[in-house]
Amino acid sequence: MKKILIASLSLFLLLACTQEDKKESQGLTQEEINKENAAHEQGDHVVDASIIPPMTEQEKQQYIDSAKVIAKTAFDIFSAHLKKSFSENHPAEALQYCKDNAMRITDSLSKVYGVEIKRTSFRLRNPENKPTDQEDKIMEIFKQRIHKNLKSMPYVHYDNYGNPHVYLPIMVQDKCLMCHGDPNKDIPDDINNKLAELYPADKAIFFKKGDLRGIWSIKFPKKKQAENK
Ligand code: HEC
After folding, report:
1. What are the pLDDT digits (tens) for 40-80?
2. Cα–Cα distance for residue pair 13/19, rounded to 1 Å
3. What would the pLDDT profile of 153-202 be if each residue is shown by its tens digit?
4. Most exposed residue of 111, 124, 174, 200, measured as fewest CB within 10 angstroms of its CB?
5. How many folded domains does the chain comprise?
6. Ligand 1 site residues, Cβ closer than 6 angstroms
7. Looking at ligand 1, which atom is closest to the CA of residue 120?
8. How does DSSP classify residue 205?
9. Which domain holds residue 19?
Protein backbone atom coordinates (compact mmCIF):
# COMPACT_ATOMS: atom_id res chain seq x y z
CA MET A 1 0.00 0.00 0.00
CA LYS A 2 2.76 2.32 1.05
CA LYS A 3 4.64 1.34 -2.06
CA ILE A 4 1.71 2.24 -4.21
CA LEU A 5 1.36 5.62 -2.62
CA ILE A 6 5.01 6.37 -3.09
CA ALA A 7 4.93 5.19 -6.64
CA SER A 8 1.98 7.33 -7.47
CA LEU A 9 3.47 10.31 -5.85
CA SER A 10 6.51 9.84 -7.91
CA LEU A 11 4.67 10.11 -11.14
CA PHE A 12 3.32 13.29 -10.05
CA LEU A 13 6.57 14.64 -9.09
CA LEU A 14 8.12 13.96 -12.31
CA LEU A 15 6.36 16.99 -13.31
CA ALA A 16 8.06 18.93 -10.75
CA CYS A 17 11.13 19.40 -12.78
CA THR A 18 10.46 22.91 -11.96
CA GLN A 19 12.55 22.54 -8.92
CA GLU A 20 15.62 21.96 -10.92
CA ASP A 21 15.09 25.27 -12.59
CA LYS A 22 15.15 26.92 -9.25
CA LYS A 23 18.19 28.99 -9.96
CA GLU A 24 16.53 30.41 -13.02
CA SER A 25 13.26 31.14 -11.34
CA GLN A 26 12.45 34.70 -10.51
CA GLY A 27 9.21 36.20 -9.28
CA LEU A 28 7.40 38.56 -11.61
CA THR A 29 7.30 42.12 -10.40
CA GLN A 30 3.95 43.35 -9.12
CA GLU A 31 3.80 45.64 -12.11
CA GLU A 32 4.20 42.73 -14.52
CA ILE A 33 1.56 40.73 -12.72
CA ASN A 34 -0.90 43.63 -12.76
CA LYS A 35 -0.29 44.13 -16.43
CA GLU A 36 -0.76 40.47 -17.26
CA ASN A 37 -3.86 40.27 -15.10
CA ALA A 38 -5.35 43.29 -16.81
CA ALA A 39 -4.58 41.83 -20.21
CA HIS A 40 -5.79 38.34 -19.49
CA GLU A 41 -8.59 38.45 -16.97
CA GLN A 42 -11.70 39.94 -18.37
CA GLY A 43 -14.43 40.30 -15.82
CA ASP A 44 -14.72 36.63 -14.92
CA HIS A 45 -13.99 37.20 -11.27
CA VAL A 46 -16.22 35.56 -8.75
CA VAL A 47 -14.55 37.67 -6.12
CA ASP A 48 -14.25 41.42 -6.35
CA ALA A 49 -10.50 41.84 -6.58
CA SER A 50 -10.69 45.31 -5.07
CA ILE A 51 -11.68 43.89 -1.67
CA ILE A 52 -8.59 41.67 -1.49
CA PRO A 53 -5.58 43.57 -0.23
CA PRO A 54 -2.66 43.19 -2.61
CA MET A 55 -0.14 40.51 -1.73
CA THR A 56 3.05 41.88 -0.27
CA GLU A 57 6.37 40.82 -1.78
CA GLN A 58 7.00 38.81 1.36
CA GLU A 59 3.66 36.98 1.10
CA LYS A 60 4.27 36.25 -2.54
CA GLN A 61 7.66 34.79 -1.75
CA GLN A 62 6.21 32.66 1.05
CA TYR A 63 3.60 31.13 -1.24
CA ILE A 64 6.14 30.53 -3.97
CA ASP A 65 8.57 28.92 -1.53
CA SER A 66 5.86 26.64 -0.12
CA ALA A 67 4.72 25.68 -3.60
CA LYS A 68 8.28 24.79 -4.55
CA VAL A 69 8.67 22.56 -1.52
CA ILE A 70 5.45 20.75 -2.41
CA ALA A 71 6.47 20.31 -6.05
CA LYS A 72 9.92 19.15 -5.02
CA THR A 73 8.47 16.58 -2.64
CA ALA A 74 6.30 15.21 -5.40
CA PHE A 75 9.19 15.16 -7.82
CA ASP A 76 11.49 13.34 -5.41
CA ILE A 77 8.91 10.68 -4.65
CA PHE A 78 8.26 10.21 -8.29
CA SER A 79 11.91 9.99 -9.28
CA ALA A 80 12.63 7.44 -6.58
CA HIS A 81 9.76 5.30 -7.68
CA LEU A 82 10.58 5.48 -11.37
CA LYS A 83 14.18 4.54 -10.78
CA LYS A 84 13.16 1.50 -8.81
CA SER A 85 10.56 0.56 -11.32
CA PHE A 86 13.00 0.84 -14.19
CA SER A 87 15.68 -1.21 -12.51
CA GLU A 88 13.28 -3.97 -11.47
CA ASN A 89 10.68 -4.14 -14.18
CA HIS A 90 10.05 -3.47 -17.73
CA PRO A 91 9.84 0.34 -18.24
CA ALA A 92 6.43 0.00 -19.84
CA GLU A 93 5.13 -1.33 -16.53
CA ALA A 94 6.04 1.97 -14.93
CA LEU A 95 3.60 3.63 -17.31
CA GLN A 96 0.78 1.38 -16.24
CA TYR A 97 1.60 2.18 -12.67
CA CYS A 98 1.56 5.93 -13.33
CA LYS A 99 -1.70 5.69 -15.18
CA ASP A 100 -3.28 3.87 -12.26
CA ASN A 101 -1.87 6.07 -9.52
CA ALA A 102 -1.18 9.61 -10.71
CA MET A 103 -4.51 11.01 -9.55
CA ARG A 104 -4.29 9.27 -6.23
CA ILE A 105 -0.86 10.74 -5.64
CA THR A 106 -2.11 14.24 -6.24
CA ASP A 107 -4.98 13.72 -3.89
CA SER A 108 -2.74 12.35 -1.17
CA LEU A 109 -0.28 15.18 -1.51
CA SER A 110 -3.08 17.70 -1.45
CA LYS A 111 -4.29 16.25 1.84
CA VAL A 112 -0.83 16.17 3.38
CA TYR A 113 -0.15 19.81 2.54
CA GLY A 114 -3.67 21.17 2.86
CA VAL A 115 -3.56 22.68 -0.62
CA GLU A 116 -4.99 21.75 -4.01
CA ILE A 117 -2.27 20.42 -6.27
CA LYS A 118 -2.65 19.96 -9.97
CA ARG A 119 -0.27 19.28 -12.82
CA THR A 120 -1.47 20.37 -16.19
CA SER A 121 -0.33 21.13 -19.73
CA PHE A 122 -1.37 22.62 -23.06
CA ARG A 123 -0.51 19.26 -24.69
CA LEU A 124 -1.97 16.56 -22.53
CA ARG A 125 -1.28 12.91 -22.11
CA ASN A 126 -4.08 12.30 -19.65
CA PRO A 127 -7.21 14.31 -20.56
CA GLU A 128 -8.14 14.39 -16.87
CA ASN A 129 -5.32 16.89 -16.30
CA LYS A 130 -7.14 19.45 -18.47
CA PRO A 131 -6.25 23.10 -17.69
CA THR A 132 -8.74 25.75 -16.59
CA ASP A 133 -9.00 28.94 -18.65
CA GLN A 134 -6.83 30.67 -16.08
CA GLU A 135 -4.17 27.96 -16.28
CA ASP A 136 -4.22 28.25 -20.06
CA LYS A 137 -3.56 31.98 -19.77
CA ILE A 138 -0.68 31.45 -17.37
CA MET A 139 0.91 28.85 -19.64
CA GLU A 140 0.61 31.30 -22.52
CA ILE A 141 2.47 33.92 -20.47
CA PHE A 142 5.21 31.41 -19.60
CA LYS A 143 5.52 30.36 -23.25
CA GLN A 144 5.84 33.94 -24.41
CA ARG A 145 8.57 34.60 -21.87
CA ILE A 146 10.47 31.49 -22.90
CA HIS A 147 10.06 32.46 -26.54
CA LYS A 148 11.63 35.82 -25.75
CA ASN A 149 14.46 34.01 -23.97
CA LEU A 150 13.35 35.47 -20.67
CA LYS A 151 13.85 33.28 -17.68
CA SER A 152 11.01 31.07 -16.54
CA MET A 153 9.35 32.30 -13.38
CA PRO A 154 6.74 31.37 -10.82
CA TYR A 155 3.48 33.28 -10.99
CA VAL A 156 1.40 34.01 -7.91
CA HIS A 157 -1.88 35.84 -7.48
CA TYR A 158 -5.29 35.69 -5.85
CA ASP A 159 -7.42 33.58 -8.13
CA ASN A 160 -11.03 34.17 -9.08
CA TYR A 161 -12.18 32.77 -5.77
CA GLY A 162 -9.79 34.84 -3.70
CA ASN A 163 -7.41 31.96 -2.97
CA PRO A 164 -3.65 32.52 -3.18
CA HIS A 165 -2.63 30.47 -6.20
CA VAL A 166 0.91 29.66 -7.35
CA TYR A 167 1.86 28.42 -10.82
CA LEU A 168 5.29 26.90 -11.38
CA PRO A 169 6.67 26.14 -14.84
CA ILE A 170 7.59 22.51 -15.60
CA MET A 171 10.42 22.35 -18.09
CA VAL A 172 11.43 19.44 -20.30
CA GLN A 173 14.74 17.83 -19.40
CA ASP A 174 16.71 15.09 -21.13
CA LYS A 175 15.30 12.47 -18.83
CA CYS A 176 11.72 13.28 -19.87
CA LEU A 177 12.31 12.56 -23.54
CA MET A 178 12.02 8.80 -23.32
CA CYS A 179 8.32 9.30 -22.59
CA HIS A 180 7.61 12.81 -24.01
CA GLY A 181 10.11 13.24 -26.87
CA ASP A 182 10.10 12.20 -30.52
CA PRO A 183 8.47 8.75 -30.84
CA ASN A 184 10.75 7.93 -33.79
CA LYS A 185 13.94 8.85 -32.03
CA ASP A 186 13.68 9.35 -28.29
CA ILE A 187 10.95 6.96 -27.17
CA PRO A 188 11.78 3.23 -27.11
CA ASP A 189 9.36 0.89 -28.89
CA ASP A 190 8.00 -0.79 -25.79
CA ILE A 191 7.10 2.59 -24.31
CA ASN A 192 5.57 3.76 -27.59
CA ASN A 193 3.39 0.67 -27.64
CA LYS A 194 2.31 1.01 -24.05
CA LEU A 195 1.55 4.72 -24.49
CA ALA A 196 -0.63 3.94 -27.51
CA GLU A 197 -2.52 1.40 -25.44
CA LEU A 198 -2.99 3.53 -22.32
CA TYR A 199 -3.35 7.00 -23.87
CA PRO A 200 -4.84 6.71 -27.36
CA ALA A 201 -5.28 10.50 -27.57
CA ASP A 202 -1.76 11.29 -26.27
CA LYS A 203 -0.58 14.77 -27.25
CA ALA A 204 2.38 14.90 -24.87
CA ILE A 205 5.06 13.84 -27.36
CA PHE A 206 7.52 15.70 -29.61
CA PHE A 207 8.71 17.84 -26.74
CA LYS A 208 12.33 18.98 -26.77
CA LYS A 209 14.72 19.72 -23.95
CA GLY A 210 14.10 23.26 -22.64
CA ASP A 211 10.47 23.38 -23.81
CA LEU A 212 7.72 24.30 -21.41
CA ARG A 213 6.01 20.98 -20.66
CA GLY A 214 3.28 22.33 -18.40
CA ILE A 215 2.73 23.81 -14.96
CA TRP A 216 2.14 22.92 -11.36
CA SER A 217 -0.95 24.75 -10.24
CA ILE A 218 -1.11 24.95 -6.46
CA LYS A 219 -4.02 26.57 -4.70
CA PHE A 220 -3.68 27.59 -1.06
CA PRO A 221 -6.57 27.93 1.36
CA LYS A 222 -7.81 31.43 2.08
CA LYS A 223 -7.08 31.18 5.79
CA LYS A 224 -3.37 30.94 5.05
CA GLN A 225 -3.66 34.44 3.71
CA ALA A 226 -4.85 35.72 7.08
CA GLU A 227 -2.21 33.71 8.92
CA ASN A 228 0.50 35.36 6.95
CA LYS A 229 -0.48 38.84 7.89
C1 HEC B 1 8.36 6.67 -17.76
C2 HEC B 1 7.70 7.61 -18.61
C3 HEC B 1 7.65 9.07 -18.24
C4 HEC B 1 8.73 9.88 -18.02
C5 HEC B 1 10.20 9.53 -18.02
C6 HEC B 1 8.16 11.20 -17.82
N7 HEC B 1 6.80 11.17 -17.91
FE8 HEC B 1 5.53 12.74 -17.77
N9 HEC B 1 3.94 11.51 -17.94
C10 HEC B 1 4.03 10.15 -18.11
C11 HEC B 1 2.70 9.58 -18.04
C12 HEC B 1 2.35 8.12 -18.18
C13 HEC B 1 1.81 10.66 -17.81
C14 HEC B 1 0.32 10.61 -17.64
C15 HEC B 1 -0.02 10.41 -16.16
C16 HEC B 1 -1.49 10.39 -15.90
O17 HEC B 1 -2.17 9.45 -16.38
O18 HEC B 1 -1.96 11.32 -15.23
C19 HEC B 1 2.64 11.85 -17.74
C20 HEC B 1 2.13 13.10 -17.51
C21 HEC B 1 2.89 14.23 -17.38
C22 HEC B 1 2.35 15.55 -17.11
C23 HEC B 1 0.89 15.91 -16.81
C24 HEC B 1 0.15 16.49 -17.97
C25 HEC B 1 -0.36 15.47 -18.96
O26 HEC B 1 0.12 15.53 -20.10
O27 HEC B 1 -1.23 14.63 -18.63
C28 HEC B 1 3.42 16.39 -17.08
C29 HEC B 1 3.38 17.90 -16.84
C30 HEC B 1 4.60 15.60 -17.29
N31 HEC B 1 4.25 14.29 -17.47
C32 HEC B 1 5.89 16.10 -17.28
C33 HEC B 1 7.05 15.31 -17.31
C34 HEC B 1 8.40 15.83 -17.15
C35 HEC B 1 8.75 17.28 -16.98
C36 HEC B 1 9.24 14.77 -17.22
C37 HEC B 1 10.74 14.76 -17.03
C38 HEC B 1 11.27 15.32 -15.81
C39 HEC B 1 8.42 13.59 -17.42
N40 HEC B 1 7.09 13.96 -17.46
C41 HEC B 1 8.93 12.31 -17.55
C42 HEC B 1 5.16 9.41 -18.32
C43 HEC B 1 6.45 9.89 -18.16
Report:
1. 444 344 556 566 778 899 999 999 999 999 999 888 877 77
2. 10
3. 899 999 888 899 999 999 999 999 999 999 999 999 989 999 999 999 99
4. 200
5. 1
6. 11, 14-15, 17, 82, 94-95, 98-99, 102, 119-121, 124-126, 129, 170, 172-173, 175-176, 178-180, 204, 213-214
7. 24
8. -
9. 2-227
